[in-house]
Amino acid sequence: MATGVEELLDMLFEMIDEAKSMPLSSDKCILERDKALDLLDEIRAQFPMELAEAKKLIAARTEYIASAKREGELIRKQAEEKARQMVSEDELLAQTKQKANELMRTAEERSRDLRKAANDYCEDALRRTEEAVAEAYDEIKKSRIIAMIWLVVSLSSAVCIGLIGRAVIPTEFLTQSAAESVFIVLSKMLLPSFFCGLVVSGIFAAAMSSSSSYLLISGSAVATNIFKGLIKRDATDNQVMIVARITLTCILLLGIFLAMDQNSSIFDIVSYAWAGFGASFGPLMLCSLYWRRTTLPGAIAGMLTGAVTVVVWKNLVAPLGGWFAVYELLPGFLLALLVIVVVSKLTKEPSREVTDDFDTYMELDV
After folding, report:
1. Max CA-CA distance within the chain?
2. Residue 361, burial from CB neighbour count under 10 angstroms (0-12, 13-18, 19+)
3. Which helix (H) or strand (E) holds 268?
4. d(CA 318, CA 309)
5. Cβ–Cβ < 8 Å for 328, 275
6. What are phi and psi of 307, to 5 degrees?
7. Range name among 59-63, 215-219, 227-231 with the lowest pLDDT average
8. CA distance 36 to 17
């Protein structure tokens, strides 16, 4: 069991660093939510404990000073009482005062030592935390650069393969579904059998990995977030597993149905799906990051408007042709952005706590 904030942060950083990357996405990864939340809860629990230790030191200092004062006062009173009974009253009183002053000086010195120790401990804990966060941020910047370089290389290579295939065998890819096999056809034409087998195996491995990951994500989202999170909060693990299996079966049947259409292509389906995602969440992400006036009703209205606009535009408006044949993401994005702004202006402003958090993060140099 980790006991220090620095150790817990190291564990969280190691979990993120070793997390499996999301298929088809180099800047996202899959984390075990419960484990990550447990680590964050432990970190959040450790800070109060360390602050409590500092408070205990300060309280001990205060109690020590008060005790010393009480003891000095008691000695002074006793000395005064004895001084009245003895001939050398002035001498005894001076001695008593001297001893009281010595006790006060000792208490003040002890108090300064305790305060210095508490400050040093807090500063050291904060320094170690800042160093860990700075190191993690540097790693994120490096990973972002590597990911962008690899993204440019991979996408450029994909475009070049398509152009080469169209130039070498222009009569081979007459339909959209046939054009998606250009990599396999070029491999069969240009590579030896062994290397062609490796290429095809890589294609199948990538397809199976992506499909399995998306199936698991979809099943988990429906079973955990929707069924257990919204519909039946007291659902058992067995019920969640059954819902996940039913979801996977429905997605499998839908995939088979879409694959039976020879005129459809994976690119069109993915483009349609990303249009829905982009129009639903793109404007909301931008407004949440850069506009402090964004409200919850505005966010919900914007997401619904973007999703509905994409579906309506794709199926009813785009078939009209002309300017209406524009990619459905554009009108969906613009309408969702407009609705977020309008609804947020017409509804109650966010709380002071939310706006303060927004201003704090906007001032950070990231």
Report:
1. 127
2. exposed
3. helix 266-290
4. 11
5. yes
6. -65, -45
7. 59-63
8. 13
Q: What is the pLDDT of residue 207?
A: 79
Amino acid letter for position 329: L
**Which residues are CB-neighbours of 84 under 8 A, at least 6 positions away?**
none
Please list the residues that pair with 30 across neighbouring strands. 20
Q: Give just the sign of the alpha carbon dihedral 248, 251, 257, 261.
A: negative
Which residue bears the tokens 């540097």?
138
Closest alpha carbon to 249 in 218, 225, 209, 208 = 218
Cα 260 from Cα 262, distance rounded (Å) = 6
| Structure-block tokens of residue 33 | 């939510």
Separation between Cα atoms, residue 345 and residue 339, nearest integer Å: 10
What span, in angstroms and rounded, lies between the C-alpha atoms of 155 and 166? 17
Alpha-carbon distance of 360 to 167, in angstroms, equals 55
Give the model's confidence band at 85: pLDDT under 50 very low, under 70 low, under 90 confident, else very high. low
Residues in the chain: 366
Question: For the stretch 219-247, what's the b/e string if a residue is b when 16 or more beta carbons lie within 10 angstroms of its beta carbon?
Answer: beebbeeebbeeeeeebeeeebeebbeeb
Q: Look up residue 366 and give its DSSP letter.
A: -
> In this structure, are residues 151 and 26 in contact, taking their beta carbons and an 8 Å threshold?
yes
Q: State the Cα–Cα distance between residues 77 and 96, nearest whole angstrom.
A: 9
Please give the average per-residue pLDDT across 123-138, as a whole number: 82
The 10s digit of each residue's pLDDT in 182-217 is 777 888 888 888 888 888 888 888 878 888 888 888
Q: Which amino acid is residue 268, in one-letter code?
A: D
Dist CA 23 CA 208 (whole Å): 10
Instruction: Write the pLDDT tens digit of every residue in 272-282.
Output: 888 988 999 99
Distance CA 125, CA 59 (A): 20
pLDDT band at 298 (very low <50, low <70, confident <90, very high): very high
